[in-house]
Amino acid sequence: MRLRQFGAVGHAGRPGVPTGRMAHKVTDPVEPVVICNQLIRDAIVVKDDEGAVDPQKTQQEVQWHEVTCLSFSYKDILGINNLVGLDNLVKLKLDNNKIWKIQNLGHLVNLEWLDLSFNNIEKIEGLETLTKLTDLALFNNLITEVEGIGTLQELSALSLGNNRLENLDGLMCLRKIPSIRILNLDGNPICLNEDYRQYVLAHIKDLRYLDYRLVDTVAVQAARERYQDQILEIEEGESQTERERSAAAAKGAREKVIAEANLSGLDTLFNRLVDEDKDLKKVEALDTHNNMLEETIDEYRRDFEHAVEEFMETVTERRKIKVTETKDFSEAMVQATEKNMQSGISMIAEFDQLKKETFLAYAESTDLGEKDRLIADLRERNELLRDDLMKLEVALQEQVDEVTGVYYKLFKEVVDTNVTAFQDFFQKLRVLEQAWGDKLGEQAKDLMNTFNAQKDADKEKGKGDKGGDPDMSIGGAMEFDESLKALLGDKELLLGSIVASHENHGMLIDGLEDQLVNNEKKELESIMEDLQTQEHKRSRLRVSEVLRIVDEVSAVQIDEVVAADREYE
Description:
The chain is mostly helical. The chain has three domains: 1-226, Alpha-Beta Horseshoe (Leucine-rich repeat, LRR (right-handed beta-alpha superhelix)); 232-260; 269-526. The protein has helices at residues 37-43, 196-203, 217-226, 228-260, 269-275, 278-281, 292-364, 368-463, 482-488, 491-568; strands spanning 69-71, 91-93, 113-115, 135-137, 157-159, 182-184, 209-210, 213-214. An eight-stranded mixed beta sheet has the order 1-2-3-4-5-6-7-8, with no helix packed on it. Helix 2 (196-203) links the parallel strand 6 and strand 7 (209-210). The protein is flat. The protein starts with 36 loop residues before the first helix and ends with a helix.
């Protein structure tokens, strides 16, 4: 759909709505048509179209899954429906109908070309999943807002002419589709705005055609200069949005890698230790003395996060071994299954040839004894075929068990290594936690002893000052913050909070270790359970198919041939 297709012909073959006129509702007094199978057949394009799969086929010969182009133009269709099974559709013409809503198109994910011109559509919707669309025509409808096309990032041609668009700022969403090169808005109320063309050229980048006219680079430059301040502000916002999007994407990718490597929660563990620690908040006054608490936490954080980073890198690399083993296993399974199935297909083909030759000999023979022998031999061969096919299935099951056993052994070696690594790593974290708790506790005791000693010294000094208040004397203890004085004066609160903090940290560390170790073990269990379920399902299906071929197809065919021959006699 390019310039020549952007609204040149109106409903029922009449000329399109002239530029500057608002779209009108289609109200022809004709009975609405429902899309049915025959209408779909009639709409299939098989000749003179670049999208047709096989130009040699007729409309009746083409299968639903082969259809790539449908043309429902001028059919008085009221609603879009019954397009199930046309998942390979590339081009769809629904122009010049009475359609009022865009619906039931979400499954047509291969659609590239969609024409909904000359209908009664009031809202752009239902197109979110059609991400391969390159050409979209909604010319001459009743649309009042540009919306619902943000996911169409491959869209290059968009026709919204002769609608009811009134708001210039409402076109800003088109900036988010950088692939648009051809845009038609002609015939909308916004076109009556004297700033319309310059506004569009300034705000929508890289247009080649606007309203059937080639875009002049000089005009674009002039438009951008006119809206320079606004454009700079918009571009700064877009750059910030893109940075945030990139950061979010990188974060998401990292979280995915972490989750796949069974490391979730490890990268945020230290923050949890600190942020969820209510006991640590009780001793925050220690920071009023040379940032004691903050410095011990910072030192602890550096050692903790360094250990986490090293461990996560090691486990992430080991994850690649699991991926490789799984890939090799899958390939081995496919190879074994395909080879076995091919042997079965050859056996069936050989029997079918024998069956064909036997039926021919049976039909030509006039000797009843010879006929009975032919049928008896064929029945016996049919039974042998069943035995041979079942033997193939048993052989495949044994091969699957062998391959699965090797896979289990190799995967379990990685799991066991990881479990040991998790246990060693978390023990290292417990050592770091113990060292931090001990250090903070010792510093708190030393500070408390210093404070008490200075407080006693201040009291002695105060006794020498007649009439003086010992608590108001100038000395070392008076240099402490009031909140710190209260904390240092309550030994049970100070030391008890530090001990409780350390114990809570230990429980968080232990809890995450248990979780990750269990996840590591359960991953293998889950994989093996899924494999067992899949293999059981495959085997049952294979056996059912063997029995169907032998008992329900070949045996029945033999009986039918014999019965027909006896009836003829």
